[in-house]
Amino acid sequence: GTSIWLKPKSDTTFTMTATFANGCTMDDTFNLYLFPSANLSPPVISCASIINDSTIQLIWTPAKDSARFSYYKISSKLASSSKYTYTDIVYGHSSYSFTYYHIKNTALEPVTFAIESFDDCGNSGKKSDTLQTIVLKDSMLNDKTVRLYWNNSVSKGSFISQYYIESNKGSGFHVVDSV
C-alpha cells in the first residue's frame, strides 16, 4: 500500500478520498489529537550496591507522581566506555529498585547508571543524575595493616568529596575513619 507521514503541530481533522480505476470514490475522515509530553521529573538514584561479583542493586526515589507516568528506562556504562547502553525497563510505580545480574565482574570495573522516566506516549522526561559503583581493592602491608584502594566515584556529575571507612568486627559496621 501507499503511505504518507503527517506532522501536524496541533489537533487536526484529515479527510482522505480514494478514487478507484472505475471512477468510484470513497471518503474517510479522522481526527488527530495531539497530547503534549508529560514533562516528567527525573528519579533520584540513591544507591548502587554491589551484591556479589556479578550482581548490582540500584535503588532510586521515584519521579514526582504523574498520571501519565508509564515506565523507567535504565541505562548503564562501564568506566572504560564512553557510551551508555540500554540495560532494562521497570514498569509502573510498584518498584523503585532494580537488580542487574548481567555484569561480568563487579570487582574489575566501575559501572555508571542513569534512569529516564517515560510517559504513556513514549516521551522521555529528563535523565536522572548518574551514580557510579565503587570498586574497592586491598593489599596487605603486614599482618595488622591493610591498604585500601578505590576509584573516584561520581554522583550528580561531581566526584564524591568524602568517603567513610567502616569495619565489622562481629557486631555490625562502624565508622573507623573518613577520607
Topology:
Layout: E1 12-19, E2 25-32, E3 44-52, E4 55-61, E5 69-78, E6 85-91, E7 97-100, E8 111-119, E9 124-127, E10 131-132, E11 136-142, E12 145-150, E13 154-155, E14 158-159, E15 164-168, E16 173-178
Antiparallel strand pairs: 1-2, 3-4, 4-7, 5-6, 5-8, 8-9, 8-10, 11-12, 13-14, 15-16
Task: Please give a structural write-up.
With 179 residues, the chain is mainly β. It contains no helices and 16 strands. The strands form six sheets. Strands 5, 6, 8, 9 and 10 form a five-stranded antiparallel sheet that branches. A three-stranded antiparallel sheet has the order 3-4-7, with no helix packed on it. The protein has a two-stranded antiparallel sheet with strand order 1-2. The N and C termini lie far apart (67 Å). A hairpin with a 5-residue loop joins strand 1 (12-19) and strand 2. The mean pLDDT is 82.
* Portion in helices: under 10%
The arrangement of helices and strands along the chain is EEEEEEEEEEEEEEEE
Report Rg: 25 Å
Annotation field: number of helices: 0
Query: What's the total number of strands?
Result: 16
Mean pLDDT: 82
Strand content: over 45%
Which runs of at least 5 residues are low in confidence (pLDDT < 50)?
Answer: none
Largest sheet: 5 strands, antiparallel
Overall SS class: mainly beta
Name the overall outline: elongated
Beginning-to-end CA distance, first to last residue: 67 Å
Task: Quickly list its features.
179 residues; mainly beta; five-stranded antiparallel sheet; three-stranded antiparallel sheet; elongated
